[in-house]
Design brief:
Oligomer: single chain
Shape: globular
Structural class: alpha+beta
Low-confidence stretches: 36-43
Length: about 180
């Protein structure tokens, strides 16, 4: 509908795009680039501030996408994109350990990895998934953070993730890692 108030736009988007943030057309999605089926998840209820006069706002919208680009699920984070919010969202999308993705690519991967290592509630994610930082954000991560460089590097050249790094030839026939 045209001219909806902003709080109604979000509600309408949830109605049109998916049940609780899960895109129905992506439910049970699989293609030659994807290996995991999708699972439904529960939406976090919006949080409204009673102490301010501003319109209610969300901190961000997060999506889970398959390797081929299909949006599997989405949700809103009301106050923060904290590692615990990210892990709760992932847990609500991937209800079974055997359906989790091998790689989770997120700008805050090293923070999420730290949380998994330091909190028994999420340490089982280390058995199924590797958290990597996307290449765009990786350049802003601290070079002195050895754990981030070793385990969250989107293109490790140490052979630890051979399916993330391929060797290609340039126009002059020279090999380079991509």
């Amino acid at each position: 509908m045209d001219c909806l108030p902003i709080d109604e736009v979000t509600k309408e988007a949830f109605n049109v795009l998916g049940d609780g943030g899960v895109i129905k057309s992506a439910d049970q999605h699989s293609c030659s680039e994807c290996t995991h089926q999708v699972q439904p998840h529960d939406e976090e209820p919006p949080i409204r501030s009673r102490d301010s006069f501003t319109a209610p706002r969300m901190y961000c919208v997060k999506t889970v996408c398959a390797p081929c680009g299909v949006v599997v699920a989405w949700t809103k984070f009301a106050k923060a994109e904290s590692p615990t919010n990210v892990l709760n969202f992932l847990g609500s999308v991937y209800l079974e350990k055997n359906q989790r993705p091998a790689y989770v690519c997120i700008d805050k991967a090293c923070m999420v990895l730290h949380t998994c290592l330091n909190n028994a509630r999420w340490e089982n994610w280390l058995e199924t998934s590797r958290f990597i930082v996307d290449a765009y954000h990786y350049i802003n991560h601290h070079a002195t953070d050895e754990m981030c460089r070793t385990w969250c590097n989107p293109a490790p050249l140490n052979g630890s993730a051979p399916n993330l790094v391929t060797t290609e030839r340039d126009a002059q026939g020279q090999l380079y890692d991509l």
